[in-house]
Amino acid sequence: MDYIGEHLLPGKLGHFFIILSIVASLLATVAYFLAAQAKEPGDSQAWKKLARIAFLTEVFSVFAIFSILFYIIHNHLFEYHYAWKHSSRSLEFKYLLACFWEGQEGSFLLWTLCHSILGSILIKRGGQWEAPVMTVLSFTQFALATMVAGLYIFGWKMGSNPFILLRDSGVFDNAPGMHVNFDLAQPIRPDYMQSVKDGNDLNPLLQNYWMVIHPPFLFMGFASTTIPFAFAMAGLWKKQYSEWTKPALPWALFSAAVLGVGIMMGGMWAYESLTFGGYWAWDPVENASLVPWMIGISGIHTLLIYRHTGHSLRSTYLFFILSFAFVLYSTFLTRSGILGESSVHAFTDLGMNWQLTVFLLGFVLPALAFFLLRLKEIPSVQQEENMASREFWMFIGSLVFFLSAIVIIAKTSTPVLNKVLGTNIAPPEDAEFSYNSIQVYVAVIVALLTAVSQYLKYKDSSRTYFWKKILIPTVITLVLFALFLVFGAIHYTKKGPVFQGAIWLAVFCSIYSIVANASYIWLGVKGSLKLSGGSIAHVGFGMVLLGILISSSNKEILSNNIGGIPAPLAAGENPRENLTLVKDLTANMGSYSLTYLGDSAHPKKQLWFYKIRVKSNDGKEDFILTPNAFVNYKGNMGLMANPDAKHYWDHDVFTYITSIPNPQTAKDTSTFKPYIRKAGDSLFYSGGYILVQELKKNDSVPEDLFGKDGSLYEVPLQVHSKTGSVYTLKSRLAHARGTWFSLPDTLPSESLVLQLQQVNEDKSFELGVKESGAVMKYVTLKAYRFPFIRLLWYGVWITAIGILISMVRRIRLNRKNTPSA
Amino acid sequence: MKKIHIILLVLIAGSIGILLTFLKTASTYDTIETAMSKPGKFVHLMAKLDKTQPIEYDAVNNPNYLSFTATDTTGKSVKVIYHNAKPDNLELSDKLVLKGKYQDGLFDCKDIQTKCPSKYKEEQARTGGTHPGNVPVK
């Protein structure tokens, strides 16, 4: 049957290139393998030539697939399921790439694309390592190419094809309107495209610029862990157990920098567009990408130890194998749907779990077996390590970091354990604390070791040398920490004094790490930036730790609220985090006041912007935040909120909408009408009358909330409605920390807002009465203050820059030493 | 034995210890019946919203109080209290993971994870197709 309005050529080309990429990567694997095994140099050269052609064909195919799919999305060819599912006509151009990798297929393609780029560089620069390393890489490419194959082999689905047509995707199976004569048994209507006017759009939460660049960095990071792994395998295979470490080091450094930045970009996205109020939640998806990075970092350090002292080669092998293994494991966790219960943002099951499992085990088990088989042949130094040497403490640090990664991934793996063993293990009551309570000590140890280890020399260092050098940074750190004790504090008491103490200790160690490493640039390498990559990276890492520690433990909930009453009046009760702001009523909370000014809509989408005015009580800060929310977007009922934050150099104020009234709200324009009354008086409103009772003054208010000389006036009001209902409200006026503010009480059933506005000398007082003609306009929100969160973001960049400086230096050193590469 | 080996053993033992402690503090996935049988214990209750019962949430009066009834396939039901804003897709969810404790006849919930039918987006295509040539003639 011919269908009207379809564009089938791109899809056919896409299918062709997918098949071509599978065949080419398999051919490249075989040819590279034979090139590496060939005894005669001539044979090897011939195979290598063929392999290169095959690999470059694969690279071309991958780029072609990528471009075709992008063409389909960009031209809104909704006859293709992928475009229909992930994009829409109203989507801004900048997000077209984000919807490219919203689906599993697109993100697999991104991964192979990164491999293609890295592989092309290896062909140019790999030298004698090209053949064995590229064998491993080509095979990985083959495995990834099958992930988008979309073939059925004996009923097993292999891969999910991004070029599948909408009418073949099963979406219309239950849509009579799409079939001839409204009959599901009949074929699909030839003119079905007339009914497919628009796609489903990108998930609103992913419509954020970080989502355009976070995945490329992350997948480049994932792809780059393959290279050190491939070098390690090549070393085992060619029995050149040591030589591979030289060319592998810059690759490992590259991988650490890119993967680290990629992970933290995900954190920045979460901070800006998710509503759990932070950047890290120990979610399984986050953990699964963090763990390969941590193990990779351990691998880099043991590799450096090996290059300088000959120790730790075996652990280097293990770390690089495991770093790659955990990338595959992370792929398995996030894409198999096994995390359904425990993660907020995993992909859904595409029905190809067997393939993911084969992918994981097919690489990891042979690699580990190969490693164990050759373990005895890998050279190792039998001599005892010297405790006064740099390598001893570096090794301890790597080991702690590695074990910490293993602990994290083990905790994350409970869904797998449940599946395999049939156990019933759910996360503990405070899942985040179960991570934090352990990792804070890891931070202490690692920060301390990064601070002091550089001041030791490899192999042996004299005590006087060490103490002389470390003295200055230690003194500076003590001074800084003393300043921190005087002017700052860790307020986190929720988990008891032990944990609070551990945070203090970790703060000290992070400052030490920053100071000691910054000093080392002058004391150790005499200000030469070229040589100080490691120190710069450690300074950045110290900043990351310090930023995490301060911003999370001193995170302040501004929207503390109990039963509609702002927090200062309910000391002792457990504050809750949501605050409802009625339009134009200012709510005071802590050191800020918030007013909901109104909302506005996006011209094309059901996206609403809520204007919230935030003022600090000291008058220094006064700004407007506009958190937004998609309301009933594209059949996705309810609210999808995006936070907004104001960034200051030393803190962020951050807010997001948690609930809004039914959108059929009428406009509310009424204002407060003042009434002067005394106790016993009454006043009328449109729905009945109000009896005014005795004014009470409360001087014994908690000092930590009200400051000295604080007081609280309160007038109970009895509202008698015409319908006979009686309500008791309390209007209050507080005098806290030198300012006066009214605390309105609302009665939604009567559309009534009452507040005490002024208390006069003669015991009379002014009541404000506001009647809104319709249901009230309000938003419910949460607001936080994150101190020193910038330290974290800057720290990430500085770490990456430091690592890249080291990488450049190592590449230069390698080139000098091997003139004919 | 080298120093490094001793340290290695100590650290590995420590890690195992940490994981065993973790298993001890871990909670369980439960049905309403099993959750009721261990009052005061933190569980992950797998249930769904009972749509025949009212949902109580008034953001103006108290944005931190939500109450509804949860039910599960065993037919049991329990009243749930949640001191936080109402998840906006609560009514649409087909499955809820309620993290909290059963106590005094109520399930006091600390966190709610809503699971929406994953195919909800396809709904539009299914219903959105009447076209000129195929309108049934009366």
Write structural notes for this entry.
- The complex is a heterodimer of chains A (821) and B (138).
- By secondary structure, chain A is an alpha+beta fold.
- Chain A is built from 19 helices and 25 strands.
- Among the domains of chain A are: 207 residues, no CATH class; 127 residues, no CATH class; 84 residues, no CATH class; 99 residues, no CATH class.
- In chain A, a hairpin with a 4-residue loop joins strand 22 and strand 23.
- Chain B is an alpha+beta fold.
- Chain B has a domain of 93 residues: OB fold (Dihydrolipoamide Acetyltransferase, E2P) (Beta Barrel), CATH 2.40.50.140.
- Chain B is built from 3 helices and 7 strands; from the N terminus they run αβαββββββα.
- Chains A and B meet through helix 12, strand 4, strand 6, strand 12 and strand 25 of A and helix 1, strand 2, strand 7 and helix 3 of B.
Task: Please give the share of residues in helix of chain B.
Answer: 10-25%
Low-confidence stretches of chain A: 562-573
Per DSSP, the total helix count of chain B is 3
Mean pLDDT across residues of chain A:
88
Most residues in contact: chain pair = A-B, 68 and 61 residues
CATH topology grouping of the domain at 26-118 in chain B: OB fold (Dihydrolipoamide Acetyltransferase, E2P)
Largest sheet of chain A: 6 strands, antiparallel
**Beta-strand segment tally of chain B:** 7
Structural class determined from secondary elements of chain A: alpha+beta
The H/E string of chain B reads: HEHEEEEEEH
Instruction: Give the proportion of residues in helices of chain A.
Output: 40-55%
Termini distance of chain B? 93 Å
**How does the major sheet of chain B shape up?**
5 strands, mixed, barrel
How many strands of chain A? 25
The 3D shape of chain B can be described as: elongated
Globally, the shape of chain A reads flat
